[in-house]
């Protein structure tokens, strides 16, 4: 098979493994990075998995009407999904440092298919919210996939691989809004989750056929030790603490933009359809470009400069976003800037963290992304309430304030990466 194709699971024999200095056992393919076909497959799987927690954004009003809750309370759907995601990051993602990561990926994908089916068939608000929480819990397979890709990649190309896989995440988020809005207009919001359930099952079968095993621990920990070591990593690694806190701020700002956006867009004077609102999310397609570019820059030692540029872009983005009622083109411009800046910071953070402790990579991504989930949940939870009380200007002011806070925090803590050996240019 060509070197840039999708490689199937490698044969595991004792004579074809080596033990690295980081305490992990490397299979025979460890010296080379995954080919373009495998990276594309991992990116597509990440995209669909993360899309499952984004489908609801253009559907919040329909879901609220179906379950008899107010539109102001509709943000609870996003909040419980993000809280479920946070629990998954804490209790499921670290398992990648303990068990066969390939089996973990496939098992979570199959269970995610079941959770999506539960959302599609829920009859009460309690069952619906529980099912949404389960969708969030199992969607963390995205982070297991990213960590797996990082371990499969050679050090010199790790940023590029992580950026490429992360660009699939952004593409999935953007397509999710468009697909869910269109399907909801044609067949109702439940059809979105029925289709997603079938798609996740299909993806699980493809992953089973083509995803190879990666490095595994040579000195495995117990599950209890694994969870306790997650706290230890935060104590020992300033870069993890700083970048995790930064993630909570930038993703809170992102959620403040996207969670309540459906409400003003559907009302006068804009009066967009769900389909138009969903596909409007494609304005943020620059995020995929930002992820890929940030990964390449991180490989050349420019992670800090990329972070600064991304944060400045996120601050400036709120100016055109605040002028949404003047022109939807200005909103689109602002969405592009937020998406691009967010991913520039996000991928730079991941690249810096992944350089530190290869044997703990699943725990590192779990610790980092827990703060992402907390920030997203808080941003989603407060944004609809802010919109009800202060309208779109209030939302923009809140997003601007959080973005400025993120930039100030980075500036005050920018020397925390001093101990991280970035690749040389």
Brief write-up:
The protein is an all-alpha fold. It has helices at 36-51, 60-67, 75-91, 101-121, 125-138, 141-152, 158-187, 189-210, 223-236, 238-258, 262-266, 274-280, 286-299, 303-322, 328-354, 361-413, and strands at 18-19, 24-26, 216-217. A three-stranded antiparallel β-sheet has the order 1-2-3, with no helix packed on it.
Please tag this protein with its features.
425 residues, mainly alpha, three-stranded antiparallel beta sheet, 16 helices, 2% strand, disordered N terminus, disordered C terminus
Helices and strands, in order, run as EEHHHHHHHHEHHHHHHHH
Beta-strand share of residues: under 5%
Mean pLDDT across all residues, rounded? 81
Shape: globular
How far is the first residue's CA from the last residue's CA? 33 Å
Low-confidence stretches: 1-31, 421-425
Class computed from helices, strands and strand pairing: mainly alpha
Q: Biggest β-sheet: count, sense, barrel?
A: 3 strands, antiparallel
Number of strands: 3
Radius of gyration: 21 Å
Q: Largest sheet, order of strands side by side?
A: 1-2-3
Tally of helical segments: 16
Q: Helix fraction?
A: over 70%
């Amino acid at each position: 098979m060509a070197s840039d194709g999708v490689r199937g699971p490698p044969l595991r024999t004792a004579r074809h493994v080596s033990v690295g200095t980081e305490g992990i056992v490397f299979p025979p393919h460890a010296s080379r990075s995954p080919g373009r076909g495998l990276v594309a497959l991992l990116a597509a799987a990440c995209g669909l998995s993360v899309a499952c927690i984004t489908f609801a954004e253009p559907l919040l009003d329909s879901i609220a009407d179906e379950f008899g809750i107010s539109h102001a309370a509709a943000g609870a759907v996003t909040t419980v999904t993000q809280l479920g995601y946070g629990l998954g990051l804490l209790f499921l993602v670290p398992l990648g440092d303990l068990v066969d990561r390939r089996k973990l990926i496939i098992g979570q994908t199959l269970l995610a298919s079941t959770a999506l089916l539960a959302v599609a068939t829920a009859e009460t608000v309690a069952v619906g919210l529980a099912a949404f929480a389960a969708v969030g819990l199992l969607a963390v397979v995205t982070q297991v996939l990213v960590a797996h890709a990082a371990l499969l990649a050679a050090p010199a190309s790790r940023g590029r691989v992580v950026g490429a896989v992360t660009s699939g995440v952004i593409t999935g988020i953007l397509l999710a809004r468009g697909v869910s809005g269109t399907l909801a207009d044609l067949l109702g919001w439940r059809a979105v989750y029925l289709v997603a359930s079938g798609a996740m099952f299909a993806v699980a079968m493809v992953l089973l056929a083509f995803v190879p095993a990666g490095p595994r621990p040579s000195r495995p920990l117990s599950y209890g030790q694994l969870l306790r070591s997650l706290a230890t990593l935060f104590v020992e690694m300033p870069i993890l603490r700083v970048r995790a806190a930064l993630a909570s701020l930038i993703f809170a700002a992102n959620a403040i933009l996207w969670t309540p956006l459906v409400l003003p867009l559907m009302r006068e004077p804009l009066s967009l359809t769900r389909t138009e609102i969903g596909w409007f999310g494609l304005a943020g397609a620059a995020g995929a470009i930002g992820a890929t570019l940030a990964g390449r820059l991180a490989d050349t030692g420019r992670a800090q400069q990329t972070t600064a540029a991304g944060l400045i872009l996120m601050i400036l983005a709120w100016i055109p976003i605040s002028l949404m009622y003047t022109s939807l083109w200005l909103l689109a411009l602002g969405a592009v800037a937020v998406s691009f800046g967010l991913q520039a910071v996000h991928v730079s953070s991941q690249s810096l963290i992944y350089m530190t402790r290869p044997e703990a990579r699943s725990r590192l991504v779990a610790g980092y992304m827990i703060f992402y989930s907390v920030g997203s949940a808080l941003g989603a939870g407060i944004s609809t309430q802010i919109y009800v009380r202060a309208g779109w200007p209030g939302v923009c002011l809140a997003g601007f304030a959080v973005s400025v806070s993120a930039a100030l925090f980075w500036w005050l803590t920018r020397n925390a990466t001093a101990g991280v050996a970035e690749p040389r240019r």
